[in-house]
Amino acid sequence: MSRPLRVLHCPSPVGGYASSLVRWERELGVESWCAVFQPGPYQYPADEVLWLPGQGRWRWELKRWSLLWRAMRQFDVVHLNFGQTLMPTTVGSPKPTSLGGRLAAMYRRWTEMLDPPLLKRAGVKIAVSFQGDDARQGDVLRSISEFDLTGDLEPDYYTPESDDAKRRRIARFAKHADVIYALNPDLLRVLPAGAKFLAYPTVDFAEWTPLPREPRDVPVVLHAPTHRGIKGTRHVLAALEQLRNEGVRFELRLIEGKTHAEAKAMYRDADLVVDQLILGWYGGLALETMALAKPVVCHLRESDLQFVPEGMRAELPLIQADPRSIADVLREWLGPRRHELAERGRQSRAFAQRWHDPRCIAAGVIDDYRRIV
After folding, report:
1. pLDDT of 276-314, one tens digit each?
2. Cα(33)–Cα(46) distance, rounded to whole angstroms?
3. Taking the model in full, what pTM does it have?
4. 349 within some domain
5. Most buried by CB count within 10 Å: which residue of 11, 41, 252, 343?
């Protein structure tokens, strides 16, 4: 191909994944564009936001179809994020209670996943990235979890209906997608054979630099849940309350409802970060705070590590904990092993730089684009 590859990333800004890939793909000579329907709560950047307040639902839908038309005519690859397509989805949609709601539900059913076959017919290649609950299914998660999830997840967080709907969407993606990525290793249990694990490419290490600081008498423990249930927040808070009653000294910073920029400023002040205790892999919070040379506590599911590159698996610096062990782990690292926190933080940044280099990850994705095109 004599001209640069043209890649459209859409439609979800979840976790800053798409905007980061777009940035580094451009650095490497690809004409990439990030279009989202609506900005996410953390205000990650996008080149184009289609749905503006006050325009009305049907005008929004016209913009949806306009984006599909442009995708078919102007791009070589469409990279779909968070397991979504350009068309509406029935997954998670509320049951309609009015005539307008019933018409909207019919529209969603008629048009759901209509775009992948249209894109393929137009000669456009399709990449899909699954990032977590877009593919994760409750029955599978419960079957592999080492502990009872009752009390952590709302009864309707995962349902048999939502599990079945996700399976149907994944099966349809398997027919049309040219390459499928999983940003969490457990997702490879439910994605088609040939799907690839992809490390998060969301941190520019020149922008996430550690600040030197003298050790302090009262360490700061930071926890920033996007969803308290799925992150195991109740176990974190219970463990810290137990340690406080035992006389262990610490300060808790619980970060919720902040923009990404606001949260980043608060991350810098942490001595120890607790990510999640349920899902079995670390998330964007862990990566960003490791880049700042912070030690991170997280649940890593042993049976999922088979899906991770051997070298990455061998070098994981995260401090392992789960709902049963979190109090003991925090007691140890806020007590007798507290002097090791700074060194574990340095190891964490080195690991993140090695395995989450966004330029290297984008280069691998571009190689996939070129292969399928």
Report:
1. 999 999 999 999 999 999 999 999 999 999 999 999 999
2. 8
3. 0.93
4. yes
5. 11
